[in-house]
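About this split. The held-out portion is used to measure sequence recovery: a designer receives only the structure tokens and must propose an amino acid at every position. Recovery is the fraction of positions where the proposal matches the reference. Here is one held-out target exactly as it appears in the evaluation file.
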């Protein structure tokens, strides 16, 4: 496993995920409210050992090799993974995904976490743009993109765990848009 940088925000630690995070990952992720708005390739019901297998077989072998996965940890509970942000170079069509345990929704934590990862993507990894997507109707995810200054590109058909979701919105964020949004550009 390649090392990836750790980050600190006002309320969070972001660091690479390890197998030790599997119990918290499983506890917060294996919730239909969290999984329902994700791509249909995520199994539902989620397997009892799904988090450990995913960390061991998918995250760790690719970590730092044009794919980066950060766990989110509250500073008040630094050993409890509460969500994930992942970033990858190859579009499908997006370059970034995330999830956050339901108990932590509505606090602005994901907006806080994605800001530091966006800075790193542009300033540390040299991304020319970040393509983002969300289920049409996933207003929380949409709002994170709007708060970052991303520009909506299109809506297209897509399959999600919840079959009621049948389309995704695709967004783009460029370094120029990000800097302007952050008050650092023209």
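Reference sequence for scoring:
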């Amino acid at each position: 496993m390649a090392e990836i940088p750790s980050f600190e925000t006002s309320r969070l630690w972001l660091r690479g995920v390890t197998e030790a995070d599997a119990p918290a990952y499983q506890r917060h992720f294996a919730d239909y409210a969290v999984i329902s708005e994700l791509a249909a390739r995520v199994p539902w019901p989620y397997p009892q050992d799904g988090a450990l297998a995913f960390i061991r077989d998918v995250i760790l072998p690719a970590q730092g090799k044009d794919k980066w996965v950060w766990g989110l940890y509250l500073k008040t509970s630094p050993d409890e993974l509460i969500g994930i942000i992942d970033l990858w170079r190859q579009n499908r069509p997006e370059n970034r995904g995330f999830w956050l345990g339901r108990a932590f929704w509505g606090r602005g934590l994901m907006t806080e976490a994605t800001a530091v990862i966006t800075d790193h993507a542009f300033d540390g990894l040299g991304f020319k743009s970040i393509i983002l997507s969300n289920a049409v109707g996933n207003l929380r995810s949409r709002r994170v993109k709007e708060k970052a200054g991303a520009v909506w590109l299109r809506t297209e058909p897509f399959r999600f765990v919840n079959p009621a979701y049948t389309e995704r919105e695709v967004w783009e964020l460029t370094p120029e848009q990000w800097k302007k949004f952050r008050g650092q550009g023209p």
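Annotator remark: The CA atoms of residues 89 and 178 lie 18 Å apart.
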